[in-house]
Amino acid sequence: MKPRFLSLLLGASLLFTGALVASETAASPAPAFAPHAIPGSQLRTLPRNAAGRQYQLHIALPDSYATHPERKYPVVFVTDGYWDFTKISAMEGSLVYDRVVPEFITVAIGYAGENLDYGSLRLWELSPVVLTEFGSDAEKSGHAAEFLKTIETEIIPLVEREYRADPSFRVLSGASLGGLFTLYAMYTKPALFNGYIAATPAVGAGNDWLFGYEEQFAKSGQALPVRLYATAGGNEEPRFLGNILRFNAQLQSRRYPGLAYEFRLIDGERHAGMQFESYVRGLRFVFAPPPLFCGGLTRLGRVGGSVPCVCKGRARKCRPRLVTSPRRRSR
Predict the structure, then answer these.
(1) What 3-state class would DSSP assign to 260?
(2) How confident is the model at residue 119 (pLDDT cuts 50, 70, 90)?
(3) Do residues 45 and 95 touch, judged by C-beta distance below 8 A?
(4) Which 3 state secondary structure label does DSSP give 200?
């Protein structure tokens, strides 16, 4: 009886173990297909800083990066990397194919970790002042100055040290609160970036704080030698849209020396959908080449093309100096 009892006990144990393994396998099935990965992309997690913030960089390298080690590339930095990295990195290839921008490195700034509340986290970085309109989350806002310092002293140096980034041309872009931060950065450190893209910026946040900040900058008499592209969606919430239109009017009235500024109202689009067109047109605008000087006359060039101008009374072609990458295969 004893051997028979031990045999039955062992069999029951094996059956139980098998059932447990089968249950765990059914609860966590292996993925049937491989996940899609963006070619040429990387994730870089930075050490947690003194304020307890831990950033993650979403980086996309141009197609020619591996095959042309002699080249350096401009960098497009974008806020809200968890949302906007795929937008910017997807646009780069098509715009390069059309020869309206040079190849560039995308660096989108986000947060390290899983299942994060991005809506709450981004208040800390992207708001220049405490935003009382956010109620209980207000105390989490108002740290744009610290975020800008991190970008200037940690993120930009890392990118330009470890990648073939061209330090002579940087772009900052962002949408909504990211657009507010972009404008704040432009007025605070105008020389840090060459181009700024502010898509549907939340300029009314903090009881119109940015309006007063812009007025202080205007009174300082400083030049603003940058390229700025700003947008709003035609079907956005009326008050939000009204704030952007008011800020556009204020900015248009300044005529800052050196500022190349374009504003576009994107017809029929709301707050999120309009961001795609904003970035496409914004990238084209900030990468537009500088004016061509030809016999004392100035003409604007096109990336990768030529424009007619008149030099000393003779018609000729003048080429921009901006070098572009080879044409891609048909898409």
Answers:
(1) strand
(2) confident
(3) no
(4) coil
